[in-house]
Amino acid sequence: MIQTIDIQQQLIKERNKKQQSIDVLEWVKEVFEDINVLQKDVLERLAQSPINKTTNTFNIDRVDANAIFHISQIRKICIDFRLRFLDTRYFKADYPQEVISKIKALEKEHNTTLDGFKIIAPSKLFELNEADDPLLFAPMGNGYYYLIHKWGKDMHPLRKVKYWAIKNVENLGVAIFIFSILMTLFTKDFFFKNEINFGYVFMLFLFYVKGIMGFIFLFGVSSGKNFSEYCWLSRYNKIS
Hints:
alpha+beta; 5-stranded antiparallel beta sheet
Protein backbone atom coordinates (compact mmCIF):
# COMPACT_ATOMS: atom_id res chain seq x y z
CA MET A 1 0.00 0.00 0.00
CA ILE A 2 1.34 3.42 -0.97
CA GLN A 3 1.78 5.70 2.02
CA THR A 4 0.74 9.34 2.01
CA ILE A 5 3.37 12.03 2.26
CA ASP A 6 3.48 14.46 5.15
CA ILE A 7 4.74 17.71 3.60
CA GLN A 8 5.71 19.08 6.99
CA GLN A 9 7.94 16.08 7.58
CA GLN A 10 9.46 16.47 4.13
CA LEU A 11 10.26 20.09 4.93
CA ILE A 12 11.90 19.06 8.20
CA LYS A 13 14.02 16.45 6.40
CA GLU A 14 15.10 18.99 3.79
CA ARG A 15 16.02 21.47 6.47
CA ASN A 16 17.92 18.89 8.48
CA LYS A 17 20.07 17.96 5.49
CA LYS A 18 21.68 21.39 5.73
CA GLN A 19 21.68 21.56 9.50
CA GLN A 20 23.03 18.19 10.58
CA SER A 21 25.98 19.78 12.28
CA ILE A 22 23.98 22.64 13.79
CA ASP A 23 22.32 22.57 17.17
CA VAL A 24 18.57 23.00 16.51
CA LEU A 25 17.92 25.16 19.58
CA GLU A 26 20.85 27.37 18.67
CA TRP A 27 19.55 27.65 15.11
CA VAL A 28 16.06 28.64 16.35
CA LYS A 29 17.63 31.25 18.59
CA GLU A 30 19.55 32.71 15.64
CA VAL A 31 16.35 32.86 13.55
CA PHE A 32 14.54 34.86 16.23
CA GLU A 33 17.57 37.10 16.71
CA ASP A 34 17.55 37.87 12.97
CA ILE A 35 13.83 38.69 13.15
CA ASN A 36 14.38 40.96 16.16
CA VAL A 37 17.20 42.75 14.34
CA LEU A 38 14.93 43.40 11.34
CA GLN A 39 12.11 44.64 13.58
CA LYS A 40 14.47 46.85 15.54
CA ASP A 41 15.82 48.31 12.30
CA VAL A 42 12.30 49.22 11.09
CA LEU A 43 11.30 50.70 14.46
CA GLU A 44 14.49 52.77 14.59
CA ARG A 45 13.80 54.14 11.11
CA LEU A 46 10.25 55.02 12.13
CA ALA A 47 11.53 56.75 15.28
CA GLN A 48 14.09 58.82 13.35
CA SER A 49 12.41 59.32 9.98
CA PRO A 50 13.33 61.05 7.76
CA ILE A 51 16.95 59.87 7.94
CA ASN A 52 18.52 59.96 4.48
CA LYS A 53 15.70 60.73 2.04
CA THR A 54 12.21 62.18 1.80
CA THR A 55 11.19 60.42 -1.44
CA ASN A 56 10.95 56.69 -2.12
CA THR A 57 11.13 54.76 -5.39
CA PHE A 58 8.37 52.22 -5.98
CA ASN A 59 7.93 49.57 -8.68
CA ILE A 60 5.10 50.99 -10.79
CA ASP A 61 3.91 47.49 -11.73
CA ARG A 62 3.43 46.50 -8.09
CA VAL A 63 1.86 49.57 -6.47
CA ASP A 64 -1.73 49.54 -5.23
CA ALA A 65 -3.50 52.47 -6.88
CA ASN A 66 -5.95 52.67 -3.97
CA ALA A 67 -3.06 53.37 -1.58
CA ILE A 68 -1.80 56.49 -3.39
CA PHE A 69 -2.96 59.90 -2.12
CA HIS A 70 -1.98 63.47 -2.98
CA ILE A 71 -1.00 66.00 -0.34
CA SER A 72 -4.05 68.12 -1.23
CA GLN A 73 -6.36 65.22 -0.34
CA ILE A 74 -4.46 64.55 2.88
CA ARG A 75 -4.62 68.25 3.77
CA LYS A 76 -8.42 68.40 3.35
CA ILE A 77 -9.04 65.32 5.50
CA CYS A 78 -6.68 66.56 8.21
CA ILE A 79 -8.37 69.96 8.34
CA ASP A 80 -11.91 68.52 8.26
CA PHE A 81 -11.24 66.09 11.11
CA ARG A 82 -8.60 68.16 12.96
CA LEU A 83 -5.74 65.69 12.47
CA ARG A 84 -1.98 66.12 12.14
CA PHE A 85 0.25 64.94 9.28
CA LEU A 86 3.78 64.72 10.67
CA ASP A 87 7.03 62.78 10.45
CA THR A 88 6.92 59.53 12.44
CA ARG A 89 9.75 60.80 14.65
CA TYR A 90 7.10 62.85 16.50
CA PHE A 91 4.69 59.92 16.93
CA LYS A 92 4.50 58.80 20.58
CA ALA A 93 2.20 55.75 20.38
CA ASP A 94 3.33 52.17 19.79
CA TYR A 95 3.34 50.46 16.40
CA PRO A 96 1.49 47.13 16.04
CA GLN A 97 3.29 44.13 14.55
CA GLU A 98 1.28 44.52 11.33
CA VAL A 99 3.07 47.80 10.62
CA ILE A 100 6.50 46.18 10.85
CA SER A 101 5.38 43.26 8.68
CA LYS A 102 3.85 45.50 6.01
CA ILE A 103 6.91 47.73 5.82
CA LYS A 104 9.23 44.73 5.43
CA ALA A 105 6.92 43.14 2.83
CA LEU A 106 6.65 46.41 0.90
CA GLU A 107 10.42 46.89 0.91
CA LYS A 108 10.96 43.35 -0.32
CA GLU A 109 8.30 43.68 -3.03
CA HIS A 110 9.70 46.96 -4.34
CA ASN A 111 13.36 46.16 -3.63
CA THR A 112 13.91 49.34 -1.64
CA THR A 113 14.46 50.72 1.85
CA LEU A 114 11.68 53.07 2.86
CA ASP A 115 12.36 56.37 4.57
CA GLY A 116 10.65 59.70 5.19
CA PHE A 117 7.65 58.07 6.87
CA LYS A 118 4.73 60.33 7.76
CA ILE A 119 1.62 59.61 9.76
CA ILE A 120 -1.94 60.96 10.02
CA ALA A 121 -3.25 60.93 13.58
CA PRO A 122 -4.98 63.12 16.19
CA SER A 123 -2.62 65.54 17.92
CA LYS A 124 -2.86 63.60 21.20
CA LEU A 125 -1.01 60.67 19.58
CA PHE A 126 2.00 62.91 19.15
CA GLU A 127 1.90 63.52 22.91
CA LEU A 128 0.41 60.39 24.52
CA ASN A 129 0.72 56.64 24.11
CA GLU A 130 -2.77 55.91 22.78
CA ALA A 131 -4.24 54.36 19.62
CA ASP A 132 -6.89 56.20 17.62
CA ASP A 133 -6.92 55.60 13.88
CA PRO A 134 -3.33 56.38 12.77
CA LEU A 135 -2.44 56.03 9.06
CA LEU A 136 1.20 55.45 8.07
CA PHE A 137 2.49 56.84 4.73
CA ALA A 138 5.70 56.77 2.72
CA PRO A 139 6.43 59.70 0.36
CA MET A 140 6.53 58.96 -3.38
CA GLY A 141 7.53 62.41 -4.61
CA ASN A 142 5.70 65.23 -6.41
CA GLY A 143 3.26 65.57 -3.51
CA TYR A 144 2.08 61.95 -3.52
CA TYR A 145 2.13 59.54 -0.57
CA TYR A 146 1.72 55.76 -0.36
CA LEU A 147 -0.51 54.41 2.42
CA ILE A 148 1.32 51.57 4.17
CA HIS A 149 -1.06 50.67 6.98
CA LYS A 150 -3.99 51.92 9.08
CA TRP A 151 -4.63 50.65 12.59
CA GLY A 152 -6.44 51.53 15.78
CA LYS A 153 -10.13 52.31 16.10
CA ASP A 154 -12.13 54.34 13.58
CA MET A 155 -13.01 57.99 14.04
CA HIS A 156 -16.31 58.92 15.65
CA PRO A 157 -18.80 59.86 12.89
CA LEU A 158 -19.45 63.24 14.55
CA ARG A 159 -15.77 64.23 14.82
CA LYS A 160 -16.02 66.35 11.64
CA VAL A 161 -19.04 68.20 13.08
CA LYS A 162 -17.34 68.58 16.46
CA TYR A 163 -14.40 70.49 14.99
CA TRP A 164 -16.25 72.26 12.16
CA ALA A 165 -16.31 75.64 13.93
CA ILE A 166 -12.51 75.73 14.43
CA LYS A 167 -11.69 74.50 10.94
CA ASN A 168 -10.91 78.09 9.86
CA VAL A 169 -11.76 81.74 10.60
CA GLU A 170 -14.78 81.75 8.28
CA ASN A 171 -16.39 78.76 9.99
CA LEU A 172 -15.81 80.28 13.41
CA GLY A 173 -17.49 83.50 12.29
CA VAL A 174 -20.53 81.60 11.01
CA ALA A 175 -20.70 79.56 14.23
CA ILE A 176 -20.57 82.72 16.38
CA PHE A 177 -23.29 84.34 14.25
CA ILE A 178 -25.61 81.32 14.47
CA PHE A 179 -25.03 80.76 18.20
CA SER A 180 -25.64 84.46 18.92
CA ILE A 181 -28.94 84.36 17.04
CA LEU A 182 -30.06 81.28 18.94
CA MET A 183 -29.09 82.79 22.29
CA THR A 184 -30.94 85.99 21.39
CA LEU A 185 -34.12 84.12 20.44
CA PHE A 186 -34.03 81.99 23.59
CA THR A 187 -33.40 84.85 26.06
CA LYS A 188 -35.09 87.95 24.58
CA ASP A 189 -38.30 87.36 26.51
CA PHE A 190 -36.39 87.03 29.76
CA PHE A 191 -34.60 90.37 29.30
CA PHE A 192 -37.29 92.52 27.71
CA LYS A 193 -40.59 91.01 28.90
CA ASN A 194 -43.34 92.95 27.08
CA GLU A 195 -41.13 95.75 25.70
CA ILE A 196 -39.68 93.83 22.75
CA ASN A 197 -38.74 95.68 19.57
CA PHE A 198 -36.16 95.20 16.84
CA GLY A 199 -33.69 97.68 18.34
CA TYR A 200 -33.61 95.92 21.70
CA VAL A 201 -33.30 92.49 20.08
CA PHE A 202 -30.50 93.70 17.81
CA MET A 203 -28.59 95.17 20.76
CA LEU A 204 -28.94 91.87 22.63
CA PHE A 205 -27.66 90.06 19.56
CA LEU A 206 -24.60 92.34 19.41
CA PHE A 207 -24.03 91.75 23.11
CA TYR A 208 -23.90 87.99 22.55
CA VAL A 209 -21.62 88.38 19.51
CA LYS A 210 -19.11 90.47 21.45
CA GLY A 211 -19.39 88.26 24.53
CA ILE A 212 -18.83 85.03 22.62
CA MET A 213 -15.98 86.54 20.60
CA GLY A 214 -14.35 87.80 23.79
CA PHE A 215 -14.68 84.41 25.48
CA ILE A 216 -13.23 82.60 22.45
CA PHE A 217 -10.38 85.09 22.20
CA LEU A 218 -9.45 84.67 25.86
CA PHE A 219 -9.76 80.89 25.68
CA GLY A 220 -7.78 80.73 22.45
CA VAL A 221 -4.95 82.90 23.77
CA SER A 222 -4.73 81.09 27.11
CA SER A 223 -4.80 77.59 25.57
CA GLY A 224 -2.64 78.44 22.56
CA LYS A 225 -4.95 76.59 20.17
CA ASN A 226 -5.00 77.34 16.45
CA PHE A 227 -7.37 76.73 13.54
CA SER A 228 -7.22 73.31 11.88
CA GLU A 229 -6.10 74.72 8.53
CA TYR A 230 -2.98 76.16 10.18
CA CYS A 231 -2.01 73.35 12.56
CA TRP A 232 -2.41 70.17 10.45
CA LEU A 233 1.31 70.23 9.62
CA SER A 234 2.50 71.69 12.91
CA ARG A 235 4.41 69.53 15.38
CA TYR A 236 3.62 71.98 18.18
CA ASN A 237 0.58 71.57 20.39
CA LYS A 238 0.27 75.34 20.78
CA ILE A 239 0.64 78.32 18.46
CA SER A 240 4.28 79.11 17.77
